[in-house]
Amino acid sequence: MYGANAASAAEDQDAGLDVWGFLRRRKSFIIVFAMLGTGIGYMLFDRQVPIYRSTALVQVIHRHADRRMDILVSERDLKDAAFEIKSPSLIEPAYEKHQLSELTLLQGLPPIAAYDQIAGMTEVRTGLDNTNVVEIAVQGARADEIRQIANAIAEEYVNKQMENYKDARGELDALLMRQREGLHVELKEKEKEYNEFRERSGLMSDGKNPHRERQQAFLTQLATLSLEETAVKAELETLEEALNSGGSREAILMAIGKLSENSATGAVATRRIDDAANSSRNLDERMIPLLLEQKELEAKHGKDHPKVRAMERRIEFTRQLLQKFVAAEPATIDTPVTTDVPTDFIVIYLQSLRQQMQRIARERQDLETQAGEAERLARALGNDENEDRTRRNEIDRLTKLFDNASSNVSQTKVDAEMGGVKAQILAHARDGGLVYPRLSQFMSMGAFLGGFLGLVLGYLVEIADKSFRKPHEVIREFGVPIIGHIPFMTDERLKGGNASNGMDRTAVCVHQPRSRPAEAYRSVRTAICFSALGSSHRVIQVSSPAAGDGKSTLALNLSIALAMSGKRTILVESDFRRPKVHKLTAVENKYGIVDVLRGVAELDDAVQSTSVESFFVLPCGSRPKDPAELLSRPEYEQLIQVLREKYDYVIVDTPPILAVTDPTSIAPRVDGVLLAMRLSRHTRDLGRRTLEQLRDVGATMAGIVINGVEESDGYGYGSYRYSDYQYYYKSYDDGYGHERNAKEDYFSEDRSESIDADILL
Q1: Which of 255, 276, 420, 489 has the most neighbouring CB atoms within 10 Å?
Q2: What is the value of pTM for the model shown?
Q3: Do residue 514 and residue 596 come from a single domain?
Q4: Is the same domain home to 376 and 487?
Q5: pLDDT digits (tens, 9 = 90+) for 535-561
Q6: Burial 352-374 (b: 16+ CB within 10 A, else e)
Q7: Domain total for the chain?
Q8: Is residue 126 part of a domain?
Q9: Which residues are paired to 140 by β-bridges?
Q10: What Cα–Cα distance (Å) separates residue 349 from each residue in 232, 288, 356?
């Protein structure tokens, strides 16, 4: 393929701009323009007006015990110092008090223009090294006068700082006093309005609504009655249900005494009721279970709870009932227990429960009437309640604000005595020192700009120069090895050769075998024969990117060099558009390769021998009208295979690759393609396009031969010098593309193939 070793070596080279090589080649641009810039810098320096600078240092320390003073005076970091110093409020008193109008720099200027002039000359720097120092610098053309301006501004700035603090302190005191007095007046007015409101309002002394209190009391009593009514109603319904269902009197009595909650206790209670009817035991002993239950309810709910009151009534009823039992039938221990309890007692108890329900209903109706009336009266005073609450809140708020304002007044007076400002001039301004212009700056800047301009111009020239400067650039650009460098052959040198054998004078391997060009062609032969692919590279196509690169001369001398080394070599003409092999070798062109491909002649009749042993030539013969199609036929490839078998090397001379498409048809059928190139500003683009076309058809590159090297360079790789030459794209196009000129182009004597125009190059 494309010289793998050469391609890998090219990858190791720098792909970008050769900086050091560029600087060596274009250093004259940099040096000349740098010197020119230095001279211009000196000329500009000599024309400048000198500028002097004088500086004064002022220290300003603010001792603010009250943070509110920071709002009214300059901050401690002096951020606004630059604006304050350059403001007309400070420059005007400095201009008037220190008689700056008499200075030469300001003479003839109106006051406003003078203020602007001073502000433009002044430069302020604050917070030097994180301190409270202000640097006031003035620049001007007169060293003594700028000193006076700087000192005047510094003194006025110190005075301004002292006045600012005094004014700020007085302003803060007056502000706080006005705030306090305003709050006091407003508070007194609100209190007066509130007293008048209380006099006409029906609220209590503490601002509460008396009817609202009565309503709450009635609602509480209603809740108590509801609980009591619920308990009595439940007991009444239970007893009535028991009577209606025909239950036993013992069970009814147990329900009346609340003895059903505990079965054991109920049994004891039943037994004690029976005993009460038959014996005279102590009544208190028989009431113990009910009394214990009463205590438990009191501990759980309180003495006034409806359940407790209901229990008290049951205990009282039970006591009365037992007393009646005892009185009716005195009981003894031996008296048998009877369960016959008089029904009148149960009826009386039910009647008492119904009377309680009626009483509760009357009390509820009375309480609801009173609660409704209280609610109506309370709503009538609702607006007064809201207004009272609003007025009291407003008075409380104003009282707090007034207390805070009074405290601020007292605290501000203390803080003002602890605070203050200290402003002084640390260093007065002196006669100014020269700051502009400086010779070193102008000359160094001129040299830098000039050198940079020279560098840019050199770079533009560099990128505009597309020629190759070193062989490795060719290898890196194309990825193909260079196998030879052919020196430039002048017309005078060619005339010195012996052309008696009929061959063209460009066959230097025959006419001048000891010359430098002949030795160069033999080195190409050696590179082909002894390369890694030498044994397989037997059919070699010789071409070039464009006309005038010397590809026919290379094909001729390479064929002769191979034949002189004992290799049977044949030079095949494949440039059917402008054939010249028969002229270069002085052979007969009656029959040629075109005739063989068309079957008109035999190969042996078309092949011509030359005066050089083992060197044969297959000329063009009849010129075809369809050269591209003829070269694309299978017969051409078969002919190449026949020649491969009969000869050691087959050299195929083809047209330039970029001129016509014929060479790309032949390239895939040969063992390798040898390109002849002349280094010029067009070589890079032409070579790249040529190799792209060869890569597209899958051709194998045998190498590149650099043609036209100046003999003064020999085989070195310094800076090549090449003569100008002309490309013949137009002549190829006219000759190949238009049938009307075919006869003139094909059968002319090839006037353009003179030694100077094509053969030599």
Answers
A1: 489
A2: 0.43
A3: yes
A4: no
A5: 677 899 999 988 888 899 999 999 999
A6: ebeebeeebeebbeebeebbeeb
A7: 3
A8: no
A9: 52
A10: 12, 21, 11
